[in-house]
Each structure stands twice: as structure tokens, then as C-alpha cells.
Amino acid sequence: MIKVGIVEDNKTVREGFETLLNRTPGFQCVCTCGTVAEALKKIPKAQPDVVLMDIQLPDSTGVECTAKLKEQMPLVHIVIVTVYEDSDRIFQALRAGACGYLLKRAQPEKVIAAIQKRMKAECQ
């Protein structure tokens, strides 16, 4: 079972990811968060294998949250989820410890495949 946490401020997107994960065999959404503050509190307790991280959040950035989570949980795999194809932001996220990125408009099978790929990759 792959345990996944979601950090996304858009409730519709967050719930869509949660539904997708919980309906996909071998996946379980263990935590959803709408802000960085909430993520830093809930994710270490939930111990997900992978975190889907929005790059722009209301109280900070996904880049900042990624860096802080990687300090606390060096083995967690973080995949940035963004509407932007902004290579600077994506590069910053990768430097902060993210393993990859997805566009929010990605098809559901691409989301699942990206999570599976991250679980097989070493990206500490």
C-alpha cells in the first residue's frame, strides 16, 4: 500500500486527488492539507510515502514546505503539483528536495504513474 499525503489549497483539486487515490488499488490518501502550517503539523504524524505538493499555497510556498518536510522526513518522496510550467519554480522545488513534478491538468493515470515512479526511484 502506497500512502500519500496531499498539500493543496484548492478544495476541489484536493478532493479530486483524494478520491482518485482512495479508489485506486494499492493507494491510500492518509492526509490532506490546505496550507503549509497544516502540512507541517499533519504530514509528519501521518507518515506518507509520497506527498503531492502544490507549489503556491496561501501561507507560503510548496518549495518552502518541501524543504521543511525533507528536514523532518528525509525519506519522504515529494512530487510538486502545479498549474505552471515555470522551470525556475520547478528547479527551486527540486533543489529543496522534491523528486519531480506534475501539472494539475495531468490525466489520472499519469498522477498514479508518477507516484509509482517516485516510489521506485531514489531521490533523497
Automatic annotation (TrEMBL):
Modified residue annotations for 4-aspartylphosphate: 54
Annotated PROSITE patterns: RESPONSE_REGULATORY
Annotated InterPro entries: CheY-like_superfamily, NreC/VraR/RcsB-like_REC, Sig_transdc_resp-reg_receiver, WalR-like
Entries under CDD domains matching the protein: REC_NarL-like
Domain Response regulatory: 3-119
Keywords for the protein's UniProt record, in alphabetical order: DNA-binding, Phosphoprotein
GO molecular function, one term: DNA binding
Kinase recorded as keyword: no
Keyword DNA-binding recorded: yes
Name listed for the protein in its UniProt record: Response regulator receiver protein
Source organism: Pedosphaera parvula (strain Ellin514)
